[in-house]
Amino acid sequence: MQGSGSGAATSGWRNWAGDQSATPAAFERPGSVEEIASAVLRAGERGMRVRVAGSGHSFGDAVCTDGMLMSLQAMAGLLDVDRSSGLVRVQAGITIGRLCALLAEHGLAMENLGDIDVQSIAGAVSTATHGTGARLQNLSSQLAEVTLVLADGSVMRCSPERDPEAFAAARVGLGALGVIAEVSLRCVPAFTLEGVDSKAPLAQTLASFQEMALANDHYECYAFPYSPTALTRTNNRTEQPPRPPGRLSAYFDDVLMTNHAFGALCRLSRRAPSHIPRINRLVTALASGRRRVDSSHRIFTSPRLVRFTEMEYALPRARTAEAVRRVMELVERERMAVPFPIEVRTVAADDALLSTASGRDSGFVAVHMFEGMPWREYFEAVEAIMDELDGRPHWGKRHFQTAERLRGRYPDWDRFQAVRARLDPHGLFSNAWTDRVLGPVRAPSGAGAAGG
Questions:
Q1: Can you name the CATH fold of 78-189?
Q2: pTM for the whole structure
Q3: Contact call for residues 181 and 147 (beta carbons, < 8 A)
């Protein structure tokens, strides 16, 4: 989409998966905090609600709006680095991949990452994006300070020392509190990981899931419906020097096999869904082990060229294996056409008010569907299982929940709503998605946005 300072929208917006779209009345691409504030004030004057788009890697309709859509892609700079403390301040639109490359130049790294690095840092933390590691928290837990532009155009900086209640809400703010303009992150000295990919019997993998999660720095597994074999990935810190793969080897593993070959099998599955059980068994049978030693951000992330849509739920960690077994049984009992594996990860509890891991050590179960294939029946049936297991939906992925159903799953739900009512009393930063999953803002009579 192209935009201008006047806020004129010339075309629509689509997400990476291509299955969410919007035609906003105005599109803004600010280049500074001041320009964000001016755009927010213009929206208020014109009676438009405001949403902010990251890189489009969310699968739900959290960004979609017919009001003002804002992109922070022009605000992607590294503002300050303190190598001794590990504190780094960046603009909100910087992608995780660009951030990691800049951190490496200063001998620093993110403590944990997910498996892709194209999201903006603001979008990733706002939706509680996570990696895997039973003793490590999600990305928003690495925040030290958040700079918000509020509905009245004022600028607020919150941290554990400065308005800690707003900070606890803003760490996973869903874009509902204001526009994140800058963040400060607690980074760690750069480190090397040894990554090992292997396969094992699915029953054994699920039986030992908690044990393996606790025994490794980072552990995840993939269960293919109709296959008795699971694929596993362990990443552990090592003192060995990085040994990056050669360009040809990296292309063969990360692009040709993981993306192009798998994509071809998914297209075959879409054309001939009755063959999916055999195709999935073939994928796991042909999977080979791999060992890599490299800088942490290169081990954590890999390219994702096969397009899909996704739903993910956070559960009490002790119920993770049960959830996977039930999803596998569902798919096979109903003979569902599911060519994608179920992805299983874990993170430690944190204290962000609407974090999916708030107050509990969590396991994550993610289900996917290849582009162009029916997904709703599968996702709805999986969500019914997750509801029974006290699941919390990933905020950046598909789900069918409402505020009424979600409120009881978050012990600090009302605290978040109180911060929301204080910072955005008239619901400027709302859309149909926030109306559904958070409900309308219920501000006290006469309230106004408060900056700091």
A1: 3.30.465
A2: 0.94
A3: yes
